[in-house]
Amino acid sequence: LTDVKFGSKLERIEGGAFLDCPFLERITIPLKDGMITHDNIFAGCDNLKHVDLVEGELHETIAALQLEEWRNDMNEEIGSINRILSTVDAGGWNDDVGDYEDGEKAQVIRMWIGSVIGK
């Protein structure tokens, strides 16, 4: 599993959904607050480096209105999260404690979604 694309009707991704998917590189999700529910969603997903947004009503509205500046801002935001993802820890199994440790990827994506929605 290297690439996951969700539709615009997805409401949230629950904890452990992609636990130990070491080959996952890209995920496409809708831009919705509360989408990322737990910090362990991407534990063990060390290769996750790209987040894309589902093309749905929001994208169609922007295209129709030709809001070039806003589109450019969103492209910058997507580039930003993709640069950050390659630098943060995914978490995963810790033999010392005998349990999974939460990674930073889910936290970073959740904060990024909130930031983008706030624009």
Describe what this molecule looks like in 3D.
With 119 residues, the chain is of the alpha/beta class. The strands form 2 sheets. It has a 3-stranded parallel sheet. A two-stranded antiparallel sheet has the order 4-5. Strand 4 and strand 5 form a beta hairpin. Helix 2 packs antiparallel against helix 3. It is elongated. The termini are far apart. The relative contact order is 0.20. The mean pLDDT is 82.
In terms of topology, how is this protein built?
Elements: E1 3-5, E2 26-29, E3 50-53, H1 57-65, H2 68-85, E4 92-94, E5 99-101, H3 104-117
Parallel strand pairs: 1-2, 2-3
Antiparallel strand pairs: 4-5
Oligomer: single chain
Distance between the termini: 32 Å
Helix content: 25-40%
Radius of gyration: 15 Å
Average of per-residue pLDDT values: 82
Binned strand content: 5-15%
Let me know the largest β-sheet: 3 strands, parallel
If helices are DSSP runs of H or I spanning 4 or more residues, what is the number of helices?
Answer: 3
Task: Kindly state the number of beta strands.
Answer: 5
- Per the principal axes of the C-alpha atoms, what is the gross shape? elongated
Low-confidence stretches: none
Helices and strands, in N-to-C order?
A: EEEHHEEH
- The structural class is alpha/beta
* Strand order within the widest beta sheet: 1-2-3
